[in-house]
Amino acid sequence: MMCAFLDNILDLYFDGRLISFQARLVERHLGACGKCSARLAELQKLRMGLRALSIPEVPAGFRDGLRAALEAAKTAPIPGNAAGSEEETALVPSFSFAFSFAAFLLFICGSMFGPGLPSQGCSDAGMSICAAKEK
Amino acid sequence: MDINTLIEAHSDKAYLAAYRLTGNQADACDLVQETLLRAMKKAELYDGSYDFGAWLHRMLFRVYLNGRRSEARRREQPLEPAEESAAAASMLMAGPADSPEQAVENNELRGRLAAALDALSPELRACVVLVDVEGLDYERASEILGWPVGSVSGRLFRARRALRELLRSSEGELI
């Protein structure tokens, strides 16, 4: 029971994220439970192992390549700054959504109150095209 | 900032972080270059009261995560760590040891650890690198990654668990 509970908070204890009361509780259990102590040792070994991973030297010509790339980017025009670029003319997604929604609402309202289109059949409204034709 | 100063002062440190994230030299160099290019383009957004190195460090992690997300959308990533990757990592990892046998054992262990790290998702890997490797606290990691502290804590928990599982599956026991 306690081991299952500790399994979830052992990482927090390991990272020093528990308040003193919780930390004391964990330490008391660790003193009595070999399995949980072994898990804590695993975490420590894992961290030591990760920190011991060595990194190869910076490859030769790395800085020169960087310098050339940065110089090239500095002299080249930034695409986003060009007049009439795609970024400037593109519609913002929220605006396009609002326009679509407004168009949809307009369509619904038009269908409900308007005279109706011939392809939609005859409306019951008095002002319907069909009613006018019948008269 | 002058390009030479930028490179001299920050490229090596950026390379270290980039290598830890990507796990290989070519990708690390690409990541550093992309980050510095981004930094130049976004220079007007830099707040002078903030440490430039820390700003660049944060940008490097953001570029890494964004790049990996779009890459993942383009192609599926292998679930199992490649054997070549483990072998290459093992060759690269050279650490102090008491005896030749111990050295072989340590190198093998580090190779497995590097391969397990490679198998993590970019988000989990970024958390491990910041907290376990670079020794930052959760608040600092959360600031760099732009996630809430709870997300960092949760992802770190999952990452460590995944690492242990991967190491156990690659060998009988952990470390």
Brief characterization of the structure:
The complex is a heterodimer of chains A (135) and B (175). Chain A is mainly alpha-helical and 135 residues long. Helices cover 67% and strands 0% of the residues of chain A.
Structural classification of chain B: mainly alpha
- Mean pLDDT over all positions of chain A: 78
Strand residue content of chain A: under 5%
Biggest protein-protein interface? A-B, 30 and 43 residues
What overall geometry of chain B do the principal axes of the alpha carbons give? globular
Oligomer: heterodimer
- Approximately how much helix is present in the residues of chain B? over 70%
N- to C-terminal distance of chain A: 85 Å
How many DSSP E strands of chain B? Answer: 0
CA-CA gap between termini of chain B: 45 Å
Poorly predicted runs of chain B? 76-97
Rg of chain A, Cα atoms, Å: 35 Å
Radius of gyration of chain B (CA) equals 17 Å
Describe this structure in words.
The complex is a heterodimer of chains A (135) and B (175). By secondary structure, chain A is mainly α. Chain A has helices spanning 2-14, 20-32, 34-52, 62-75, 86-89, 93-113, 129-134. Chain A contains seven helices and no strands. In chain A, α1 (2-14) runs parallel beside α3. The N and C termini of chain A lie far apart (85 Å). With 175 residues, chain B is an all-alpha fold. Chain B has helices spanning 3-22, 25-41, 52-74, 83-92, 100-119, 122-133, 138-145, 149-170. Chain B is globular. At the A-B interface, α3 and α4 of A face α1, α2, α5, α6 and α8 of B.
Task: Give structural attributes.
heterodimer, A: 135 residues, mainly alpha, 7 helices, B: 175 residues, 8 helices
